[in-house]
Amino acid sequence: MQRIYKYSISILFSFIALNLWAQQTNKPDSVKAQRGMIKNIRVEVDLVPLITMFSAESQTYSYEAAAQVNINHKYFPVLEMGLAGANKTAQNEINYTTNAIFARVGMDFSLIKPKPGKTLTHNFFLAGVRIGMSNFNFDYNNISVENDYWNETKTFNLNDQNITKVWFEITAGVRVEISPKVYMGWTIRNKNRFGQQIPGELSPWYIPGYGINKDSNWSVNYAIGYLF
Amino acid sequence: MKFHVATYILILGFLLASCTTNDSCSEETDVNLKIGFLKRTQNQTTGAYSISTLTIDSIWAKGFEKDSFLYKNSKFKNSILLPLKINANQSEFVIRFNDKTDTLRISHENNDQHFLSLECGSIVTHSIKKVAYSTNFIDSISIINPEVTNFDATHLQIFN
């Protein structure tokens, strides 16, 4: 509940900020002036790691970039790729590490439909879906099991455990043109795993591209991009 | 002016969205063998046997060749919990039921790959293979659940 509250506040602040920036827009184009299905391609990079990397408590990192195609100002297929990992030591001294590439493919849909004869907007309000996947190795080190009555201790490591995780996302976001061909905007994601967690089965604590290994995750990206 | 205000708002927004994780373990990590006590009674008229829960007035229990007690004159118990060894395949106990003492030897296999989570770590679970016992108080023992995990369940039943 606390995390949802934090994200809600962040979304509110981001929306306010983007509304202030969106005051300046370029000269709009008419719908009739553009021909062909593919209007443009936008390449963007996530800026959130530039802020979170300075946090002393950050035990995870995620860098990602995306390429999105504008089809008739309605459909926006997207490919996202990135590098993410974790290095966390829990209170029980168990250490978890992973580092891998992840990818997502999906489609966004513009919630603002351009009307024929009307001037085109260079700002977008998008909603969409993603399928994400990552194949990665992970390590658990310094696992200790103790039996106080019999004075026994068993310590071991679980290294190079390989697994593939797939998940789907529901996204919503805004892209605003802040200067010619330069866009900024945020995307909020609700991520959900496929498959159930089997009790006793070794599972990763952190999944690159997905986040902490729970049934559902929320996350926010803030990107800067350029239009081609 | 609007640019600077917007920048500060964005930075504040991201700081609020910083993710924190909960490090505490919310799962049960104790693994114990649970033994229930039962009494088999024969109906004098019909000859049929009935089984009922047996409450021990005073119980003492400790590991074989151990000085410390797991149960030291514990009163009115109808079940006890005993920890099995994690580095050996046999655990032996000495149990005193009121004024009679028996030994109990459990042969078991250990599984140390039962991983719970990063916060909880791993536990060693056991599979009971064989139970040997003396018969001063104990009449018989039934293995009703051979898998000893962190879930609460009765694994052996001692009949008097």
How would you describe this protein?
With 228 residues, chain A is mainly beta. Chain A has 2 helices and 10 strands. Chain A starts with a helix and ends with a strand. Chain B has one helix spanning 2-16; strands at 33-42, 49-53, 56-63, 69-77, 79-82, 90-97, 100-117, 121-133, 140-143, 147-148, 156-159. Chain B starts with a helix and ends with a strand. Chains A and B meet through α1, α2, β5, β6 and β9 of A and α1, β7 and β8 of B.
Question: Quick recap of the structure?
Answer:
The complex is a heterodimer of chains A (228) and B (160). Chain A is mainly beta.
Describe the secondary-structure layout.
The complex is a heterodimer of chains A (228) and B (160).
Chain A: H1 2-21, E1 38-46, H2 48-52, E2 60-71, E3 75-89, E4 95-110, E5 124-147, E6 152-179, E7 182-193, E8 206-207, E9 211-212, E10 216-227
Antiparallel strand pairs in A: 1-2, 1-10, 2-3, 3-4, 4-5, 5-6, 6-7, 7-10, 8-9
Chain B: H1 2-16, E1 33-42, E2 49-53, E3 56-63, E4 69-77, E5 79-82, E6 90-97, E7 100-117, E8 121-133, E9 140-143, E10 147-148, E11 156-159
Parallel strand pairs in B: 1-11
Antiparallel strand pairs in B: 1-2, 1-5, 3-4, 3-6, 6-7, 7-8, 8-10, 9-11
